[in-house]
Amino acid sequence: MRTLAAASLALVALVALAAPVLAPNDPGETFRAFLYAPPMRPHVVAADGTWHWPFVHPLRLVSRLEQRYDEDPGRSVPLQFFAGGKLARLADDRDGPWLPLGADREGRDLLSRLLFGARTSLGVAVLATLAAILIGATAGGLAGYRGGLVDEAIMRLAEFVLVLPAVYVVLALRAALPLVLPSWAVFSLMAGIFALVGWPWVARAVRAVVATERTKDYAAAAVSLGASRARVLFGHLLPACRGLVGAQAILLLPSFILAEATLSYVGLGFPDTVPSWGSMLHQASDVNVIAEFPWMLAPAAAIFAVTLAANLVIERSSRTV
Amino acid sequence: MASCRAGPVSRDIQCGAARRAARPTWATGQRIGLGGKKLTTSRRERSLRSAVLAVGVCALVAASGACRRDAPRAGAKPAVKALVSSLRAEPRTFNRYVSRDSVAELFAFLTQAKLVRIDRRTQEIEPRLAESWTASADGLAYTLKLRTGVAFSDGAPFTSADVLFAFRAIYDEKTASPLGDSMRVGGQTLAVSAPDASTVVVRFPSPFGPGIRLLDNLPILPRHKLEAALNAGALAKAWDLATPPAEIVGLGPFVLKAYQPGQRLVFERNPRYWRADARGRRLPALDRLTLEIVPDQNAELLALQTGQIDFMQSEVRPEDYAALKRAADEGKVSLLDLGVGLDADSFWLNLRPNRPAALKRPWLLRPELRRAISHAVDRRAFTDTVFLGAAVPVYGPITPGNPRWYSPVLPRFEYDVAAARRLLSGLGLSDRDGDGMLEDRSGAAAGFTIITRAGNTALERGAAFVASELRKVGLAVDVAAIDGGAAVERIERGDYEAVYFRFLTTDVDPALNVDLWVSSGSAHVWNPGQAKPATDWEREIDGLMGRQVAALDQAERKALFDQVQKIVADQLPMIQFAAPRIYLATGARVVNATPALLRPSILWNPDTLDVR
Amino acid sequence: MVRYLGRRVIAAAVLVAVVSSGALLLTRLAPGDFASELFGTGVSAGSMAQERARYGLDRPIASQYLEWLGRAARLDFGVSIVYHRPVVELVRQRAANTAILALAALLLATAMGLPAGIVTGSRRRGALASVIRGLSVVLLSLPSLITSLVLVMVAARTGWLPTGGMQSAGAWDAGTLSGLADLARHLPLPALAIALPLAAMIERVQSQSLGEVMAMPFALSTLARGVPRRRLVWRDALRPSIGPVASTYGFVLGGLLSGSFVVEVVTAWPGLGRLMYDALRARDLYLVAGCAAAGSVFLALGSLLSDLVSAWADPRVRQRQAGGAPGAAE
Which residues have CB under 8 Å from B575's CB, separation 6+? Predict the structure, then answer.
């Protein structure tokens, strides 16, 4: 189970990296005639029961105001694989695009947005996790190694940050800044805010380990051999926390993905034009939309899958009591 | 001690190895002394079990209470005729003279009355507190004969002294009423006198076309309740939210019964309301009206669909149409089609002349650019994409939904991409480096940013559509959808290149909306507050509007305003693309609703509203 | 003990001051302000400037902040610009609503999670235990945002429960009992959305802790003597294992009170988180500061409660706290 979970996490990362190949359409392209179009499933069996190369029925409009479409059974467009730099695409798109997961409010292909959105959401989360680990490991390591006043100060600061109502802090920080920031600025800003809220977890864990490891023999040996304090800390003690830090990382990751989704959902994260799982959920914030067009919840399923995989990876290790 | 722990931002879970290492080593697993508590006796065990059972039974009872549905509100003959609607914002005050927001206006529609009223369906003036009126020969003075036997909801009689008080209150400097601005003509106040208790003479300082239509803006508040505050200079603070409802007295069909902050306003019928319907039945028909405070439009729609409210204050957005159509087919709501609306979202470029950006790129100020933009946008496709087909293309700010003032014969810059390109190359914009996009004479990319308000589907979609159409002719246009407050701040400061925004029409008569048309006006958005007109055509519009406001003959006023519309359609300081059709949805219980295009769409006429 | 409590109270007060000041300053620095909402509705520029002056939005930040600080020290948090009512009153009412939701969620979560945790903690094998464990991991991974969206959709389609809000119109007018019944119909949706992941967490904690207790020498020896497993679990192992769960409750409650904001937004529950979010969007300065203060008060109270419970459960913690050594533990 654990290997399966780890493998699926790796798969998600791979998919995110390979988004341009896997996505059948450009994520920003709006197909104006297909607003809120339903998913177009590939078929292999035609209406008369014969087997074919995978194909798709193009959509036709039933009612524009009600945004209803149905599949035109009379026509079928075959799929092409490994052509034109894409894993799969339509042989010709005169009858409209292929929308495997349907389209959103602006007529953009949901699957393509989901794949490119994985880059954004995972990117923010990974960046924030790395930053949190960097800050936290340094702070925790220093605290555990030096002890005394430094330790007290850093741990007090960590506790203070921990006790802050994180949601409010993140909200207020984000709301205070203008929304007209370019997307790279939003990206780094969010990663920064999350890292600032998340470092104490890493710091406290690292501090505990370093404080005990420091008394061990190998550390004393390194000191007596003339290693500088920095070298002992960064070369010997911190690497001892590898496993712990790794576990923390895997836990922080889904938290940050969810935090990005929450912020974008309430409109304070990425704007609508940038595909990210949270900004896609923002369109799903209207109950009527979810009720009428349930495929808009695809990003929710994606977030759930990543979180589940991360929790499964951790859970296994915790059961070896 | 716990092996799982709430995580950072979202407070979800952090378990296992991470937690264990965060614990101090002494706490790992050794609970000496904790495990050795005394064995519980069997009696204690039994009492524990029965306690659990009791709790379970209580839970079941509570759950059954939860499953019990409320008695159906429709069907049985209702003892009390009540309707529920929504309110989109919290009230800030109950004093209409002090506030201009939509909630205060709605409150005044329900609890107060005016001298005359404009019927929003026909745009004709109706007598209300004033039974009849005559105009003087020069058209400057109107003598209004007041209805007799009318009393406020607490019994105090209504006389001309109340009218005098109303005017005094809005013109009072200490109060600084926003209504004072709208009740002035040419910046000057109206002179009001009362020869006797049931006659009022209103004298205009200069000829004013709309005439006593202006009085539709002024509800008559009770002198006997507020005069003391006015004399003390404290009218601005009177009738705030803490006022007991019994103090809020008026001449309208309803009185305020209760205000539950953050939740609702409850109104009951005014037993002393002076109107009766055609068959002599006393009005209003309803006994009680409740307004639930629902700030979010999605929640409002949901409340309508689930029957928690009977009708909405807001119009149906195109994207909600599908869900409401389904509910209408099931008989739960009625969908009313009111035809083309009054407002078309507007696009304009910043035409303030002395900005550094404008000096560097002078082509931004040229009318040819604006004509090219109008040519470049396919308005049919616009209505399909932005409003899902439920809109009509328009070429000016006055839409066919305003038949009194709409002019169908205006110059139009229809969809013609070739003409757009021609105009742009006439400005010196051409594709110099072969990348498909235009550059100006200095080689810089020709483009600009459109600001719009985030959170409004029609605005965001519309701006995105316009931007993509303009990109097709080579202009590098992008859209920044920003928070409402930030957008407004930038517009006021003039810190923008182009804006796509929505204005709400408050009155169909352009003379009551002069600030938009004259160059010195604060709502002359593309270049507000000019000391003197910056262009010839603006000077011409200033002159025409001045005459239009002062003319008394409706045909003459229309002809003058048609000329204004022609100039605007030719110079295109504001460009409109499509005007949406307006749909309203009401629940099945609502009878006798009189919907209109101006807000509040149903409650502007609450007297005859009834329940099935 | 008294010294310990005193220190915690002072720390909490500092926390509240810092958080609310920060929120106030951040909101003030944000572009746009409350009066901007009037734009485009026919209000003249002069009237808008008047509105700004009326609410003091054109004063310099420093003087406004100092004045607020002085009043806040006397527990007067000012008047909300949007609602025109004292902030304290608004916050108190909304905090009560959030507290109702939090308690309901906690009760639900305990009712679901505790028995489940006992089942999985007392036996490592077995079909039921595996199913519960699997379900628990799934629920842990379902954030409240998603759960509430899905639940609202189910409610909208089936019509069994109201899709949002806390009260229907006229419910309390018809009597207290009908009002309570109406509340009971509005509660399950948001409470479930919060309770499901919480129940999973409680299940894990309880399972872990019970498992540890069951692995202890006294438990093994009891089993070896032939005492049935169930008796062991319910009589002897349960009480010592409750400690960890109980000590997280304080923390969880504090977090619930300040952090259920997403669920409140999705289900339109009129609580504290929602109030803060609306105030932030409307740039209602004093209200934002008041909400932030309330949120941090709850969180501080929650962690204090959590520490007190763990001190009560384990005398060694009490000793350390009284000794005042810097904490390495939670």
Answer: B346, B347, B348, B370, B373, B374
CA dist C38 and C57 (Å) reads: 14
Angle at B491 between CA B487 and CA B495, to 5 degrees: 100
> Who contacts B73 (Cβ-Cβ below 8 Å, separation ≥6)?
B307, B589
pLDDT tens per residue across span C36-54: 655 555 555 666 676 677 6
Instruction: Tell which wins on pLDDT, B547 or A96.
Output: B547
Contact B492 C39 (CB under 8 A): yes
Are B16 and A317 inside 8 Å of each other by CB?
yes
> Would you call B336 exposed, middle or buried from its count of C-beta atoms within 10 A (0-12, 13-18, 19+)?
middle
Contact A83, A89 (CB under 8 A): yes
First to last CA, chain A: 17
Q: What angle, rounded to 10 degrees, do the helices at C144-158 and A242-265 form?
A: 40
For β-strands B264-269 and B498-501, DSSP reports them as unpaired
Residue C61 pairs in a beta bridge with none
Structure tokens at B107: 């409150």
Contact A91, A78 (CB under 8 A): yes
A188 in contact with chain B, both atoms CB, cutoff 8 A: no
**pLDDT at residue B250, rounded to an integer:** 93
Please, what's the b/e burial string for B158-195 (b: 16 or more CB within 10 A of its CB; e: otherwise)? bbbebbebbbbbbbbeebbbbbbbbbebeeeebebebe
CA distance B196 to B266: 37
Burial class (CB in 10 A: 0-12, 13-18, 19+), B155: exposed
Helix (H, G, I), strand (E, B) or coil at B532: coil
Chains that touch A (3 or more CB pairs under 8 A): B, C
What does the alpha-carbon distance between residue C202 and residue C249 come to, in Å, rounded to a whole number? 9
pLDDT of A156 over the 90 cut: no
Q: Which residues of chain C have pLDDT under 70?
A: 30-48, 50-51, 54-56, 168-174, 251, 254, 257-259, 310-330
Residues of chain B numbered 383-412 and touching chain C (CB < 8 Å): none
Which of B400, B396, B421 is CA-nearest to residue B474? B421
Low-confidence ranges of chain B (pLDDT < 50): 1-41, 61-77
Residue B262's closest CA among A119, C80, A192? C80
Count the helices and strands in chain C (H runs, E runs). Answer: 15, 0
Q: What is the mean pLDDT of residues A234-253?
A: 80
Query: What does the DSSP assignment read for A23-74?
Result: -SS-TT---GGGTTPPP---EEE-TTS-EEEEEEPPEEEEETTTTEEEE-TT
| Chain C CB contacts of A121 below 8 Å | none
Chains that touch B (3 or more CB pairs under 8 A): A, C
Tokens representing residue A9 in the block = 């996490």
ipTM for this prediction = 0.73
Question: With contacts defined as CB-CB under 8 Å, which chain C residues touch B13?
Answer: 140, 197, 200-201, 204
Q: How many CB atoms lie within 10 A of CB B76?
A: 8
Q: Between vectors from CA B56 to CA B55 and to CA B60, what angle results, nearest 5°?
A: 115
- B-contacting residues of A 109-128, CB under 8 Å? none
B157: β partners: B151
Q: What tokens appear for B74 in the block?
A: 């429709």
The pLDDT, as a whole number, for residue C44 is 57
Q: Which pLDDT belongs to residue B23?
A: 43
3-state helix, strand, coil in chain A (%, to 5): 60, 10, 30
The distance from CA C180 to its chain's CA centroid, rounded to whole angstroms, is 22
pTM: 0.76
Write b or e for each residue in B360-392: b if 16 or more Cβ atoms lie within 10 A of its Cβ, otherwise e: ebebbbbebbbbbbbbbbbbebbbbbbbbebbb
Do C272 and C91 meet the contact criterion of CB atoms below 8 Å apart? yes
